[in-house]
Amino acid sequence: MGICTAPDEYQACMDGILGDLDIVLVYLLVFLQDEEKHLEHLRIVFKRLKKYGGSLNGKKCHILRKEVDYLGYTLSAEGIKPQAKNIQAIQKIVVPRNLNELRRFLGIINYYRDMVTNKTTLCKPLHRFTSSKVPFTWLPMERNLADSLCKE
C-alpha cells in the first residue's frame, strides 16, 4: 500500500525547496501570464530541483503552453473554465432515473459548483430526493432544473 504519509512528506519537501514561488505542486505546474517571468520561474525551479536531486519526466513536460488542462479545468490567460470535453459529457447526461443516478449527477454538478450560476438554488429541489424519506418522483419541474444545470 505504501507509506500513507508520503504525500504530506513530499509536499513538505517541495514546500521547502520551492515554497516561495507561486506554483502548484501536485504535478509541477508553473503558470504565469508574463512569458519572461515564466521562463525566470522555470530556471529557478530547474536549478532547485537539480540542487536537491529532484527530476522531471521530459515526456510529461509541456513548456510555454498557452493553456493547460488540469484536474478537469482548462487554465489560460483568460482564466479558469471547465474542460470542453467535460462540458460536452455533462450536456449529454441522461436525466437521472433513480437515486444513484441523481447522486452521481449532483456530484458532477458540484465538482464545477464555482462555474454554475445559482447552483445552490437550482440544486436545492433536487437534493430533497437524496433523502430516503422522499420518494424519487421525477416531474417536469425537476427535468427542467436538471436541464438548466447541464446548460450552465
UniProtKB/TrEMBL annotation:
InterPro entries: DNA/RNA_pol_sf, Retrovirus_Pol_polyprotein, Rev_trsase/Diguanyl_cyclase, RT_dom
Reverse transcriptase domain sequence ranges: 2-75
Pfam families: RVT_1 (PF00078)
Stated name of the protein: Gag/polymerase/env Polyprotein
Organism: Phytophthora palmivora
Organism lineage: Eukaryota, Sar, Stramenopiles, Oomycota, Peronosporomycetes
